[in-house]
Amino acid sequence: MESDFLETLLLTFKLAFVTTSILLVIGVPISYFLAYTKSKLKPIFETIVSMPLVLPPTVLGFYLLLFFSPESYLGRFLEESIGFKAVFTFEGLVLGSIIFSLPFLVQPIQSGFETIPKSLIEASYTLGKGKLETFFKVLLPNIKPSLITGVVLSFAHTIGEFGVVLMIGGNIPGETKVASIAIYDEVEALNYDIANRYALVLLSVSFLILLIVYTLNKKVRV
Amino acid sequence: MIKIDIKKRLAKDLLLKVNRVIQKGDFLALFGESGAGKTTLLRILSGLERPDEGKIVVEGEVWFDSQTGFNMPVQKRKIGFVFQDYTLFPNMSVYENLLFAKNDRQKADFLLKLIELDKLKDRYPHQLSGGQKQRVALIRALMREPKILFLDEPLSALDVKMRSKLQDELAQIHKRLGVTTILVSHEISEIFKLCNKVFVLEKGEIKKEASPFEIFVEAKVASSFKFDATILDLKEEDFLCVLTLSFGSNIIKSVIPKEEAKELKIGDKVLVSSKAFNPIIQKIEF
Amino acid sequence: MNKIAAVIEEVKSKGEFTIVKLRAFEDSFTSLIVQNSSLLPFVKKNKKVWMVFKESEVSIAKGECKISLQNRFFCKITHIEYNDILALITLDYKNERVMSLITYNALRDLELKVGDEVFAFVKSNELAIMEL
Question: Which of B15, B75, B223, C98 is 20 to 30 Å from B150 by CA-CA measure?
């Protein structure tokens, strides 16, 4: 029982950590692109990224299940070519969480980029610095609060996600059973005691994370 | 020597068309109404914007040539650019801002001493006053020993006293380093203090090129008493209008017929002139 | 600001001072400037310019009188506005509009009214010249 509890919590945080790390790598460039693109298609890109905000998680989960199931063309292709199985696996959970948490990372960072005056970037160019150097030495350090907010929101959101996880992950202990599923499970089985322990951990973690964010952001802004 | 021959369409009915030569060491002012193309010309020369066609040659080096399709990127042009809104990097201290431009401590120390800010080198931008920020931005622009220094209304956000101080400093720096400098400014007094040449831009074209004296003093009205002022207040009294005007740190009042005040509003810039006989002069006793 | 187009007839400079003779319609005017004419590129003989002068510098006389003022021109009053202290008189000078700001007392003393024919005066040193 005890090891079950720990295993589930560990898996939950592992999922959040892996998801957020990957999100950071792909999300920051997406935010940068959305903030500075002059493309007429910008609203379309923004809509796609933000869809998970309004979509019921089960809808997203349903489509993921459909697209990646071994019976589908894409699912079979992925499994045969690179051995990637999305349905009822941890990797599948990561994929679903990335898509679902993307707007939580992209939106704060995009608006962070957008608040940086154009002249600050141009100033860097006139001092002989290229786009890449300007990005890492001027842009990123000056949107630290937005970066922190984006990372924490997507981390916390991944921990709390339920619908997508349930749809494509199912409930395999040690593989896809995360805390939010476990709570539901235990309540179903009338194990209020264990459900309570999970809930308490999630509650305190969420509280702590947000507290850290607000404290940090305050410090950065001064 | 800088040779400019460029064209750029700014709007349907506005074509920026400049064909001029700027001498090395000049302190040139771009003067004209807003929308005349001053800032765009500055941005084209610096490489922040691209002209539609033409050629820019700086001291024998081609910076832009539409015939060969060559456009030297802004990063490669040896320039300094001071923007209206300070643009110090908030994540770097004063010293780091300077070293970001060029990792040359000796140069940074020299320039900091020049503007007497060496004591503030470890401060961050948010710990500086507006005037201090702009002075740091100015020396940061000088770190790379630019061939041209561009100043886009650099002092417009500062109060009158600070502006005057910075003008003196700019004049001194220019005298000392001799960098070819191009300034966009609306302030006649500022141009007088700093520049040896003025391009008057009107609707995208340079209508006049002369010294500030020739452009602002000898032209227009043959009256001896002249300055540009800002309207602080308009008060209508029956058929008259009493204007309160500020110029420099002074405030004066003047009266005009109400009808003439129709086209004026608070904040407008006006040219105040009077014949030389009118002012009553009294010695100020301290 | 009153503005009348005129043609420069003569320019005479001595040191810092320049006296300019102008003609508008049949009347001659003079303007005194504190600046040598060499520094006044548009002040040249036969050049068309604006004569510019403030309303408050225009005096008004009714009937014939002898006076040191050089710039005298015959006008008709077309409009009068006044309050307890000041009066703004609109004059017609050969279809050009000229305004004069005088005190209410002066208006009353001269018994000025719309339709009156009067002489308007401007001192030479109050008459500025502006590029047309």
Answer: B15
Candidates B219, B221, B255; nearest CB to C128:
B221
CB neighbours of residue B181 within 10 Å: 25
Q: Do chains C and B touch (3 or more CB pairs under 8 A)?
A: yes
The most confident of the ranges A165-179, B49-63, B224-238 is: B49-63
Helix pair B130-142, B94-101: axis angle to 10 deg: 20
**Would you list the domain boundaries of chain A?**
2-221
Select from C1, C43, C101 the Cβ nearest to the Cβ of B222.
C43
CATH code reported for the domain at A2-221? 1.10.3720.10
Whether residue B257 and residue C86 make contact (CB cut-off 8 A), yes or no, is: no
Q: Residue C122: which CATH number? A: 2.40.50.100
- For A108-134, how does the pLDDT look when each residue is reduced to its tens digit (9 = 90+)? 999 999 999 999 999 999 999 999 999
**Which CATH number characterizes residue B265's domain?**
2.40.50.100
Burial profile A11-39: b = 16 or more Cβ within 10 angstroms, e = fewer = bbbebbebbbeebbeebbebbbebbbeee
Complex prediction ipTM: 0.76
Mutate to test the interface with A, among B44, B71, B75, B86 (most CBs of A within 10 A): B75
Candidate from B277-286, C30-39, C58-67 with smallest mean pLDDT: B277-286
Checking DSSP bridges between strand B240-247 and strand B27-31, what pairing results, if any? unpaired
Please state, in angstroms and rounded to a whole number, the distance separating the CA atoms of residues B21 and B10. 22
Are B240 and C101 within 8 A, CB to CB? yes
Q: Which domain holds residue B254?
A: 225-274
Report phi then psi at A161, rounded to 5. Answer: -65, 140
Say whether B91 and A138 touch across the interface (CB within 8 A). Answer: yes
Number of domains in chain B: 2
CA distances from A20 to A102, A153, A156, B131, B155 (A): 9, 9, 9, 43, 45
**Same domain assignment for residues B189 and B270:** no
pLDDT at res. B285? 64
pLDDT class of B283 with cuts at 50, 70, 90: confident
* Distance in Å, alpha carbon of B87 to nearest chain A alpha carbon: 5
Q: What is the value of pTM for the model shown? A: 0.67
Shortest CA gap C52–chain B (Å): 9
Do B107 and B149 lie in one domain? The reply is: yes
Q: Does residue B279 sit within a domain?
A: no
Cα gap A151→A169, rounded to integer Å: 23
Q: What is the pLDDT of residues B9-30, one digit of tens each?
A: 988 888 999 999 999 999 999 9
